[in-house]
Amino acid sequence: MLGQSAAFSGPAMQLGTQFYAGAKLCFDQLNAKGGVGGRPIEIRQLDDGYEPERCKANTEKLIKDEVFALFGYIGTPTSLAALPLAASAKVPFFAPFTGAMGLREPFRREAFHLRASYDDETALIVRQLTHLSQDRIAVFHQNDAYGQAGLSGVTKALAAQQLKPLAVATVERNSSDVKDAVATLAKSGAQAIVQIGAYQACAAFIRQARAAGYGGKFYNVSFVGTQALADELGKDGAGVVVSQVMPSPYSAARPITREFVAAARQVGGNVQANYSSMEGYLAAKVFAEGLRRAARPSREGLIAALEGINEDFGGYRVNFGAGQHVASRFVELSMLTGDGRVRT
């Protein structure tokens, strides 16, 4: 039994719901074939509403109830509340849906990261913008550890080119009250605004900034929830850019995408094929491979087995090792269209 504390309610619920759906799809496939080593894999879900204190309480409960590992936590502030508990109890903490450096440094043996970091994502965004001769870059970010992680990434990437953010404004977690942020940034002269937030707040900011006359570009990091953002914005999403750390679920170029989309179709549309569910599916697939390789079904055996994975999962390279628990630095850019689709 795995334990997952995630947002299954509130303004970030689509992230938890979709990640879980993708992971369950993969585990259900395995369980239908007898599981791993004759053992089924199941996820026990607890809702934290994307709030750190609720996540901490959930994690304490899951550890007390002796789940085998913690899996697929959603978000930076919540994961930061949970990881010290996992490390203290020596419970594996696998594939948190966050790219914050604060979860990667200092190194903790229990934590395994499937995705690239926010530093990797923001570095690509800044490179793209400056390549297009756009160096007046502002930042709209969530006022918490997630937002600070993204802002730090943008600031580092700009500093490497002797630049600084032109202007900065914030929104509170689980809020879409962006009026003050729009007033600060829409008239700042920024050619582009990098957004470090969840989908509802970012969508509200884009709409209100455009209504206030802002004509520049909007760039988001992957945690925004790409399909959720596209659904929120509808036709207003045209031209919004999102960095991605997973293979595109909309392109059949990679075998993992073909496998995932086929699996989603088999369950009759109960799983939407998008970046968040793709991440859940891949996380489950890699976790199961670690479990399969473990010499014994123990937490220590799982950690040792995961450290031995250096493998291509259908076009997504996972490279773990002793002292190296970040699987990938893969990042690419995508763009929303005006009809709710995502182009890569």
Order of helices and strands: EHEHEHEEHEHEHEHEHEHHHEEEE
Structural class: alpha/beta
Largest sheet: 7 strands, mixed
- General shape: globular
Proper CATH architecture of the largest domain: 3-Layer(aba) Sandwich
**Radius of gyration computed on alpha carbons:** 19 Å
What is the name of the CATH class of the largest domain? Alpha Beta
Number of strands: 14
> For the largest beta sheet, what order do the strands appear in spatially?
7-6-8-9-10-13-14
Number of helices: 11
CATH topology of the largest domain: Rossmann fold
Q: Which parts are unreliable, with pLDDT below 50 for 5 consecutive residues or more?
A: none
Number of domains: 2
Distance between the termini: 36 Å
Sheet-strand content, in percent, reads: 15-25%
Write out the CATH superfamily name of the largest domain. Response regulator
Helix content estimate: 40-55%
On the 0 to 100 scale, the average pLDDT is 96
Architecture overview:
The chain is of the alpha/beta class and 344 residues long. It folds into two domains: 2-116 and 251-330, 3-Layer(aba) Sandwich (Rossmann fold); 118-244, Rossmann fold. It is built from eleven helices and 14 strands. Strand 3, helix 3 and strand 4 (93-94) form a beta-alpha-beta unit. The radius of gyration is 19 Å and the shape is globular. The mean pLDDT is 96.
Key descriptive features of the protein:
42% helix; 2 domains; 11 helices; single chain; 7-stranded mixed beta sheet; Rossmann fold; 344 residues; 14 strands; 5-stranded parallel beta sheet; alpha/beta
